[in-house]
Amino acid sequence: xxxxxxxxxxxxxxxxxxxxxxxxxxxxxxxxxxxxxxxxxxxxxxxxxxxxxxxxxxxxxxxxxxxxxxxxxxxxxxxxxxxxxxxxxxxxxxxxxxxxxxxxxxxxxxxxxxxxxxxxxxxxxxxxxxxxxxxxxxxxxxxxxxxxxxxxxxxxxxxxxxxxxxxxxxxxxxxxxxxxxxxxxxxxxxxxxxxxxxxxxxxxxxxxxxxxxxxxxxxxxxxxxxxxxxxxxxxxxxxxxxxxxxxxxxxxxxxxxxxxxxxxxxxxxxxxxxxxxxxxxxxxxxxxxxxxxxxxxxxxxxxxxxxxxxxxxxxxxxxxxxxxxxxxxxxxxxxxxxxxxxxxxxxxxxxxxxxxxxxxxxxxxxxxxxxxxxxxxxxxxxxxxxxxxxxxxxxxxxxxxxxxxxxxxxxxxxxxxxxxxxxxxxxxxxxxxxxx
Length: 436
What we know:
alpha+beta, 24 strands, five-stranded antiparallel sheet, elongated, 436 residues, 27% helix, Rossmann fold
């Protein structure tokens, strides 16, 4: 029996384990022969060294073996290495993870400064300290994927991160090494987004403001797509009337304005984006204009629009004047219809299609900002042109009992919390598998 027939027999056998029917070995052979005859598989399957491509393949296979383990984040605090006391310090945050039941090796990534700290502090089930690893020093040291030597009886691991004025952004995490069969979303045949380019247009929510994660970054890690983050805190898509019949910026920015229009209003647009863009990182002035969002090097396989927040004019005047059958306005130009949400949305989609005629898009609702007044208008566009709406905010199950978890800063700020971003990232990854 050759290799390909054996492969299909194994495939069919595994598949039938999930069936209630008991079939004969003869049936397995017949079905395997059918797949063998109709498949495009080569008769001999083997690994070949591809020269310059080999390191890339090895890197991708290696990175898929690391899975992040989430826990509780404790702000403005560090875990003292000697006794595990959580001490107040505005330069630190702590990630506390319950590792009970995890048999895989664990890797810690963090940033330390101070002899009272450590890369990791280990606690038993009664939260008594039973050890620590790598004492901090008087200088700042960055650690990446340090293999933890976990003492027997450890239930909790506390990782302190020296943020030193970085706000809510952290680059600390705990990962486990996975050696079992990859999950369904890691299989290329079932994950159409692996290795593709996905561009996100959004606001402070997509950017990860008031959190240490961003749902788009989380989804990109799960599905393996290359993420272009053009989200800008405070950004609206539509502009507003300047009172003299002209146009001016709404809030911190209006995506429909060009670089020249910003310049005429006294605003300088940076020539290049801040790199690397991080959740809740520095303000990204470069992407306040459609010209930089849809520049040639940003041509993407999918455009994720999370653009409801910060807009205020949801009138339908521009929408009513737009001829949906011919993609033209009955009166005026596209530039004349940029002062309402729907007019701006038409304008942005027009620029997207001009830059990429094969563009695919999806709408995401990621917070309560403008949710009540904006969703109905967004649905007009989505229903007319067949654009999918993924309502992550509704899926978060927000209510008075969950408010302290869903909102950031312990439930006091309506920006989604780190907990919410993690959930939204998982949900978005699943939803995107249904988008083509």
